[in-house]
Write a structure and sequence with these properties.
heterodimer; A: mainly alpha; two-stranded antiparallel ribbon; B: Rossmann fold; 2 domains; seven-stranded mixed β-sheet; five-stranded parallel β-sheet; 13 helices; 16 strands; about 15% strand; elongated
C-alpha cells in the first residue's frame, strides 16, 4: 500500500511538469494549426535563462519566473512576426512550418552550444535536495513547487481563455478565423499573441525542468516528444484535456515499473499514443476548442 | 594508403638511385589524424581529451619529435570535430586517411564513436590507438588494427566489488549483502552489470542481486526506479550512469530519503561539478572507480612527471580523461620509435608486442591479444570524504586514504 501511495504521488507530481511542457504546444496548434517544433528549443532556452539569472545575478529560479516568461514570450513574438507569419496558412504551409521551426530549433541549440558549451548544467538552490515527509512518504520540495506552479498555470490559462475578451477571441479564432475577421477581430494580432503565449509556457516549462534535472543544449528533445504524446492524447486544442492527458501519461509511465523492465517504461507513452490514434483519433477527451 | 605500401615505394626509390626525388620516411614530419567530440553531447569530455593530446604532442615535439630510424621527425596532429555523432566520426576518419593522408590514427571519445570509427581503420589497414572506448564489445570483433587503452568496464565494477568485499570480510557490512543494481542501457552499462553480477555469482553466499534494472540515458524521472530499490531494502546501491544522470538520480535519491551502506555510480562520483550541483554533504561517501587518478603521482614517477608538467601547462590537475588522451598519444609515439619506421604494419607489430612503463594504475601498458588488444590495466577506487577530498581507497598498493563503510550518513 505504501509503495502504491509513493508511486501515485510520484506520478501526480510528474504530471504537473508534463502538463506545463505540453500547454504551449497544444495552444499554438489549437489556434494556428502549426506544429511548433521550436517548442523544444524554447524549453531549452528557458532552462538556460533561469540558470544564467541564478548563476550570474543570484536570482532564485522561482523568483525569475516572470523574467523567463516575458523573455520566452518575446522569443515567440519574434519567431512569429519574423518567420512563421510569412508562410501559407493551413495544410499548404504545414511542411514549410515544420521545416522552418525545426531549423529555428537547430539554430537555438547550436547557439547554446557556442555560448554555454555542451557541459551539463544544474540550478542548485538551498532547497534543491530538501524534502518534507507526509504519511511516511518523502516529498521533494522542488517537485511540490513545480506541481503547484503547474496547477496555478492551468487555472490561470483556463480563466484567461474563458473569462477575458482576448481569451475568448483566441478561442474564436481557433474555431473560425475568417468569421473573426468579419466581426472585427484582428486575427494576425491574436496569432502573434498566441504564439508568444505558447512560447512563454514552453520557457516556463524549461525553467521548472531545470530546477529538477541537469540540462545541456540538447535539453528539450525528449520534452518535445512527450509534449506531442500529451497533446494528442488530450485531444488537440483542449487545455483541460492536456492536463488530464499529462496525468494519464505520468501514471502509466510510473506504474509501468511494476510490470515492465525500467528501460521500457519510457516507450509505454508512445504505445499509448499509437493506441489512441488508432482507436480514438480525437484524443482521450475528444476535440475541444481551447477550454 | 594500403598497409605496408610505403615500403615498396622506398625500395623502388633506392633501386633507381633517385633518393633525392623520393620523400624520406618522416622527412615532412609524421602526420597523425584524430577526431574528438568538440561539440555536441560529449563536448565537455572531448575538450579534456584534446588537452591530453595537445600536451602529448607538445612534449614530444620539445624532444624534436619521434625518432624514425636515424632521423627525428616532428609530429603533427590533424584534429577534427566529430560533433559527437557516429556518421561524422566515420566520415572524418575516412577523410583523414584518404584525403589528408595521415600516417596513423588516434581515437575519439565514447564507446559508440570508437566502435564506428574502428571499422574504418580496419578497412584501410591503419593503426588506430584509442583511449576513449571502454566497452568490451568493441574489441570482441578482434580487429587487427585497433588498440584500446581503456580497460573494460567489467573490471571497473569488479574493482568496486573487491573493495566492498574487503570491507565485508573485515566484518563491517554484515554477512549476506543485498545488492540493488541499476545500469544505463548502453554497452558501458551492460559491461558494468556483468562485472557486478559475475562477482556476485562467484561469491554466492555473500551477495544477492535483488534489483537488476536498466534505464535510458538522459532520464528525467528516476523516482519509480528508485522506489523499486527502496522497496527491495538492499544494502548496496550500485548504479552505472553518465554525469547528467548521476546528478539527477542522486538528487532524487537524496530527496527520497534513501541511504545505503555502500553507494556508487560506477565511474562517476568524484566530479567537482556533481559536488557543486548537489552540495558536498549529498555526495559524501560515494564510491567511484576510475581508469586513472592524479593521486597515482604519489607512487608512480611517470605519472608524477605527467601531472607536474600538465599542471604547469594548464594550471589545473588532469583528470582521467586528459591522462588517457596523453597516454594514448604516447603509446603511438613509442610504437613508431620502436618500429623505427612509418610502415603501418611494423608499427602495428610493435603495438601488439608493447609492454612499457606507464602512468596507468599497475604502472604498465600492454594490449593483450586475448582481449582483442584492449588494455586490462587495473582500476583505482576512490571514495568522497566530507572534507571534499576523494582519496584512492583500493587497491592498497596505491591507496592514499582509508575507505569508510558502512556509510556513516545512514545512521543520522
Amino acid at each position: 500500500m505504501q509503495r502504491f501511495a509513493e508511486l501515485l504521488v510520484a506520478a501526480v507530481l510528474l504530471a504537473g511538469l508534463y502538463a506545463t511542457m505540453a500547454y504551449g504546444l497544444g495552444l499554438i496548434y489549437g489556434v494556428l494549426r502549426v506544429v511548433n517544433l521550436n517548442h523544444g528549443g524554447v524549453i531549452m532556452a528557458g532552462a538556460y535563462l533561469g540558470w544564467v539569472l541564478h548563476e550570474k545575478l543570484g536570482i532564485d529560479p522561482y523568483v525569475s519566473i516572470p523574467l523567463v516568461v516575458v523573455a520566452s514570450f518575446l522569443i515567440g513574438i519574434v519567431v512569429y512576426r519574423g518567420l512563421v507569419r510569412h508562410l501559407p496558412r493551413g495544410a499548404a504551409g504545414a511542411v514549410q512550418s515544420l521545416l522552418l521551426l525545426f531549423g529555428v530549433w537547430l539554430v537555438l541549440r547550436n547557439a547554446a552550444y557556442l555560448l554555454f558549451t555542451g557541459n551539463d548544467q544544474t540550478i542548485r538552490t538551498p532547497y534543491s535536495t530538501e524534502s518534507v515527509r507526509a504519511m511516511g512518504i518523502s516529498l521533494s520540495v522542488n517537485r511540490l513547487a513545480v506541481f503547484g506552479i503547474a496547477v496555478l498555470t492551468l487555472v490561470l490559462l483556463h480563466l484567461f481563455l474563458t473569462r477575458t475578451f482576448t481569451g475568448k477571441a483566441i478561442r474564436a479564432v481557433a474555431q473560425n478565423p475568417d468569421s473573426c475577421t468579419l466581426v472585427g477581430v484582428d486575427v494576425e494580432r491574436i496569432y502573434t499573441l498566441t504564439f508568444g503565449l505558447g512560447s512563454a509556457l514552453a520557457g516556463l516549462a524549461g525553467l521548472l525542468g531545470a530546477t529538477l534535472f541537469s540540462f545541456s543544449p540538447s535539453f528539450g528533445s525528449v520534452e518535445l516528444l512527450k509534449s506531442f504524446v500529451i497533446v494528442v492524447l488530450g485531444g488537440l486544442g483542449s487545455v483541460m484535456g492536456t492536463a488530464a492527458a499529462a496525468l494519464v501519461l505520468a501514471v502509466v509511465e510510473v506504474f509501468a515499473i511494476l510490470l515492465l523492465p525500467a528501460y521500457l517504461t519510457a516507450a509505454v507513452g508512445f504505445v499509448l499514443l499509437v493506441l489512441v490514434l488508432v482507436f480514438r483519433p480525437g484524443g482521450l477527451f475528444g476535440q475541444r476548442v481551447l477550454g | 594508403m594500403p598497409p605496408s605500401a610505403s615500403r615498396p615505394i622506398v625500395a623502388l626509390c633506392l633501386a633507381a638511385g633517385v633518393a633525392g626525388g623520393c620523400k624520406k620516411e618522416g622527412a615532412g614530419g609524421v602526420k597523425i589524424g584524430a577526431t574528438l567530440p568538440l561539440t555536441g553531447a560529449e563536448a565537455r569530455v572531448g575538450a579534456f581529451y584534446k588537452e591530453g593530446y595537445d600536451y602529448a604532442f607538445e612534449q614530444q615535439n620539445k624532444k624534436g619529435g619521434v625518432k624514425v630510424g636515424d632521423k627525428t621527425a616532428p609530429v603533427t596532429l590533424i584534429l577534427l570535430d566529430d560533433t559527437s555523432t557516429q556518421a561524422t566520426a566515420v566520415g572524418l576518419a575516412d577523410r583523414l586517411i584518404n584525403s589528408d593522408k595521415v600516417d596513423f590514427l588516434l581515437g575519439t571519445y565514447a564507446s559508440h564513436l570508437v566502435e564506428a570509427q574502428s571499422a574504418v581503420a580496419e578497412q584501410n589497414g591503419i593503426p588506430y590507438v584509442n583511449g576513449g572506448g571502454g566497452a568490451s564489445q568493441i574489441y570482441s570483433k578482434k580487429y587487427k588494427w585497433l588498440f584500446g587503452l581503456l580497460a573494460p568496464v567489467e573490471l571497473l565494477a569488479d574493482a568496486i566489488m573487491r573493495w566492498v568485499d574487503t570491507q565485508q570480510k573485515a566484518g563491517k557490512l554484515g554477512k549476506q549483502l543485498k545488492v540493488g543494481l541499476l545500469w544505463e542501457n548502453t554497452a558501458h552499462g551492460k559491461d558494468f552489470r556483468k562485472g557486478v553480477t559475475d562477482f556476485a555469482q562467484k561469491n554466492t553466499g555473500a551477495y544477492r542481486v535483488l534489483v537488476d534494472e536498466s534505464f535510458e540515458l538522459n532520464g528525467k524521472d528516476f523516482s519509480a526506479l528508485l522506489g523499486k530499490v527502496k522497496a527491495a531494502n538492499v544494502d548496496l546501491f550500485l548504479a552505472d550512469a553518465h554525469l547528467a544522470d548521476y546528478i539527477t538520480m542522486q538528487r532524487q535519491y537524496v530527496t527520497a530519503g534513501m541511504c545505503h551502506k555502500v553507494l556508487s555510480y560506477g565511474a562517476r562520483g568524484s566530479e567537482k561539478q556533481a559536488a557543486e550541483a548537489l552540495g558536498q554533504k549529498n555526495v559524501d561517501y560515494v564510491l567511484s572507480s576510475v581508469w586513472w587518478s592524479s593521486q597515482l603521482a604519489d607512487k608512480n614517477p611517470l605519472a608524477k612527471e605527467f601531472v607536474d608538467g600538465f599542471k604547469a601547462r594548464y594550471n589545473h590537475l588532469p583528470e582521467w580523461y586528459q591522462a588517457m588522451g596523453y597516454e594514448t598519444a604516447r603509446a603511438l609515439f613509442v610504437a613508431i620509435e620502436q618500429a623505427g619506421s612509418l610502415d603501418r604494419e611494423a608499427v602495428r607489430q610493435k603495438l601488439m608486442a608493447m609492454k612499457i612503463p606507464s602512468i596507468l594504475p599497475g604502472g604498465e601498458l600492454s594490449f593483450p591479444a586475448e582481449f582483442g588488444q584492449q588494455s586490462h590495466a587495473p582500476f583505482v577506487v576512490q571514495q568522497n570524504q566530507p572534507d571534499g577530498s576523494s582519496p584512492i581507497v583500493y587497491p592498497d598498493s596505491v591507496a592514499t586514504g582509508k575507505g569508510v563503510a558502512p556509510n556513516p550518513n545512514c545512521g543520522k
